[in-house]
Amino acid sequence: MSVTVRVPAKVNAQLAVGGVRPDGYHDLANVFLAVGLYDEVTVTPAASLTLTCAGPGAEQVPLDRTNLAARAAELLAARHGISPDVHIHIDKDIPVAGGMAGGSADGAGALLACDALWGLGSSRDELLSLCAELGSDVPFSLVGGAALGTGRGERLTELEVRGTFHWVFAMADGGLSTPVVFGEFDRLNSAVAVPDPVASPALLEALRTGDAAALAGALVNDLQPAALSLRPSLSETLATGMSAGALACLVSGSGPTTAFLTKDEDAAGAVASVMVASGTCRAARVAAGPVRGATVVSS
Ligand code: C5P
Fold first, then answer.
1. 137 is a catalytic site residue
2. Residue among 15, 27, 136 whose CB has most ligand 1 atoms within 8 A, to mutate
3. What span, in angstroms and rounded, lies between the C-alpha atoms of 166 and 155?
4. Domain limits of the chain?
5. Is the CB of 30 within 6 Å of ligand 1?
6. Separation of 138 CA from ligand 1 center, angstroms?
7. Which tens digit of pLDDT belongs to each residue from 20-48?
8. What are phi and psi of 154, to 5 degrees?
């Protein structure tokens, strides 16, 4: 018997970052949108906790206990005084270390899958609190849809969204480490007083009304200067998508994946073709959101 959970990627329509806190984290106003690129996490009873991963970039995914999926299984098992004896297989489609919460998706997926496999019947709140222990973006991977994350990003308020927004994601070679990008943010802002992060009312209104042009005018990522400083070639990737007809562009989360908002599905297809032909990215994918969060697809 096994359980498979499908978990979406995310893009941050707004990532407002405050100054560094005493605990090393940053307060955020983080507007998450779940988009239709998915990892699938399958758990099967085994003699001990083991992990495999297949798909693009799988060779960069750690297969030891540092993987969030393994940590999720251990955390849930420890909470219930049982042994985490499962094999976890990750079918990866979310870019690895790309700023689209692929690792967090696997953590949320493994948690939900193990809960079902072991028949624990944890409440949504119990699962959410375990997700928050695993990482700042993990609760959103469980919930999906659209949400504002505050605190270090883990405290979620669901957001109302009308219709669907169409995106193109341009994958870059190699990844960017989230802590390194936050460190570069601190370095770039060391001489200024960083304001408290606040969600943009214009952006929330654009989501509520389903207005892609208004959303385009409000997209913002405070980590973008840091990601561009570490990976200057991303500027050319962003410019290519804009000249191909995107409404707006930004670095996704801590990067190096770049995100392009388009007016509809056809425009997204056209932008993706130009991106691939341009050679300014490794691959380009079309995805729409919001979509639902972690979901059991077979058991
Ligand atoms: O919470 P998570 O383990 O995903 O965070 C990874 C790293 O990203 C943290 O160790 C920290 O360096 C950085 N981070 C941060 N502020 C946040 C979220 C993450 O500085 N709100």
1. yes
2. 136
3. 26
4. 3-159, 165-289
5. no
6. 11
7. 999 999 999 999 999 999 999 999 999 99
8. -90, -15
